[in-house]
Amino acid sequence: QVQLVESGGGLVQAGGSLRLSCAASGLDFSVYIMEWYRQAPGGQRELVASIAKDGSAYYTGSLKGRFTISRDNAKNTVYLQMNNLKPEDTAVYYCDARLGIRDLWGKGTLVTVAS
């Protein structure tokens, strides 16, 4: 069965850091584009970052420089390093595996940034 499991969320003070992980199973991880989305309370799900199988990465413009996406194909895991967190980063963060138009989603991990 395909499964994406996010971890690493929690409560952090503004200016702090968190490292999110997404462990994938049941799919050929190395061929998928891996992405992080987030959804703030009452908001829409928005793309945070994506990373292709070769490691090339894309970031939402406002987050580039604070967030770093990486992947370890040997461990079937994608990471999101989040630095200098701000209260507006508070959201549920979701992991997405995409191949073409197919999307596979995790259940999310909550990140709360206190002011």
Give the N-to-C terminal Cα separation: 40 Å
Rg computed from alpha carbons, rounded to a whole number of angstroms: 13 Å
Number of DSSP helical runs: 0
Helicity level: under 10%
Order of helices and strands: EEEEEEEEEEE
For the secondary structure, the number of strands is 11
Strand-pairing-aware structural class? mainly beta
- Give the overall form: globular
Mean pLDDT: 96
Q: What low-confidence regions span 5 or more consecutive residues with pLDDT below 50?
A: none
Biggest sheet statistics: 7 strands, mixed
Measured by DSSP, the beta-strand proportion falls in: over 45%
Fold and architecture overview:
0% of the residues lie in helices and 56% in strands. It has 115 residues and is an all-beta fold. The strands form two sheets. Strands 2, 4, 5, 6, 9, 10 and 11 form a seven-stranded mixed β-sheet that branches. The protein has a four-stranded antiparallel β-sheet with strand order 1-3-8-7, with no helix packed on it. The termini are far apart.
